[in-house]
Each structure stands twice: as C-alpha cells, then as structure tokens.
User: Fold this.
Amino acid sequence: MWTRFICPDSVEVEISECLSKCRMEVRCVARPTLEMFAKGRREWKGLISTTQALNGTRMEYLRWKHDYAESPCMRAFALLGTFHHLRYQRMDLPNSLSEEWLEDAMGSGMFDFYDAESCELFDFKTVGSWKICRWLGKFQMEEPTGEVFKSGPRKGQPKMKKLWSLREPEMGDLKLQLSRYAWMLMDAGFPVRRCWVQATVRDFTAMTARMYGLTRQVFLLEVPILSRETVVAFFQAKQFALKHAIDNDEMPEICSPEERWDDRRCLGYCPVRQYCDYGVNLSTKEEHDGKEQDGEV
Assistant:
C-alpha cells in the first residue's frame, strides 16, 4: 500500500508524519492536496476495481503486498482530473448521476457522469498529445524524400520525411473501461445509448499543435460499447487472477507489453518496480547501458 511520500530531496517520510508536520522548510505541495492523495489510497477488499483491472495484475499484487512510496509532485496530472471531477460534483445537474460507485460479482468501479435524459455516459480525462492522436486514429509514418545524405555517418542513406496517416483509433483500455461502466449501469436499470470521452490535452501549445496536427485543446470522442461477453470475459479473468495471487501470496506473471507501456512504465512510472525482478533487471540494464555510453564501463 502507498504508505510514504517522497520529498523533493528524495527522502521518504510516512504519510501521517508528513500531514502532521513537514520536515522541510516549505511544503512541496499544499496540505489539502496531500490530504486528497492520502484519502485516495485504496486497499484490497476482495473485489478488483475497474482501474485496477486495466493495470497489470503483477503491479496490483505488488501494491497490495508491499508498502511503497510515491512523490506527490510526480502526480501533478492526477490533480487535474480530480479537480475536474470535483467541479462537476458541485453542479448538481438535474436528471444525471455523477461519481457514483457501482459493484457486482466481477468487481467495482466509479463512472464520471451519466445523463439520464440522453442515456449517455461520459468520462473526463486529461491526456498528452501523443495519446489523443492515438484516440483520433492519427499515426506518424516516415516516407523517403527521394534524396540521400551526402556526408556524415548516414552518408548514402535516404532522407525521410514524417507524415500523418489515419488508421483505426487505438482505444483499447478506454473501450474496456467505459463498456464496463455502461453494462454495470444497464444492469442497475439505467440504459446507456452512447459513451463519450472528453479529453483535455494537457501539453497543448502552438508547437505541439503543429507537431501533432491538433486543432483544439478539448476533444469529445465517442467510444464504442463492447459486447457484454467481451467485457465479462476480460474483467472476470482479471478479478480471478488478482484474487488468486493475493489469496495464495503468489507472484503473477509479468505485465503485458501494453500494461508496461512497452517498458516505459517499468523504468519510471511503476511505484513498485523495485519489488519486481523484471523491473529491477530492466533498470539495471538501462543504468549499465548509460554508463557504457558515458565511457564509465
């Protein structure tokens, strides 16, 4: 469980001690923000949450098995989404549901917003330009310019130019998440006709707009609802896998490449990577390769 904060000087401190009194001259973030993080920690209660199911089973198992530390400053983008949700909670819109907790035999989950008049389900996310391009179906490719490099280490190699192509949008986790909420709502008697994600591009600037071909900072995208069979099969398997690992205290298999973000998560974003042999080996290899490049090995 998340039990410690990592201070800006890399010292770890118990969350309760940090909330009581900061060990530094000035807090890294305001106390209400720290309180929000502390209250948002989740313990295993026998049912997997929707967001837990979208993570690797090994990561969620290690988060249950070990106490670990995280830096409040590294969770800056999580705050954007939290404050976004709080604003909608205060609006008290008629004929709607907001931030309601749902639970069934496969697990639990909390959706963002349901409009009972239009029977539409909405999810609000803050994402980077790269992610929104994937959701839009925009992918970058390289094409030869017809010229070659005339000097340097790439002499004779063809020069390439980057182009954008349109393909099938990559919404795997998004479709699973919203479809899960949609079927839970429908089982509770609330029909869901369509699902939407409202995505705010957190790194939108004039430069990134040109680089990624983005025309605005907020996108409202329809998310297809997967069949009940597809949703049940995925979340039942995830619920069984995590429960089995915890009940038997048994290390699950390595997270999939998608769950590992092609190893980027293991190298810098997994809070329990120090307890995972794959994460430790990957970090060791990266450190060794870095030293080789610097001529230290």
Observations:
- The domain at 75-246 is CATH 3.90.320 (Lambda Exonuclease; Chain A).
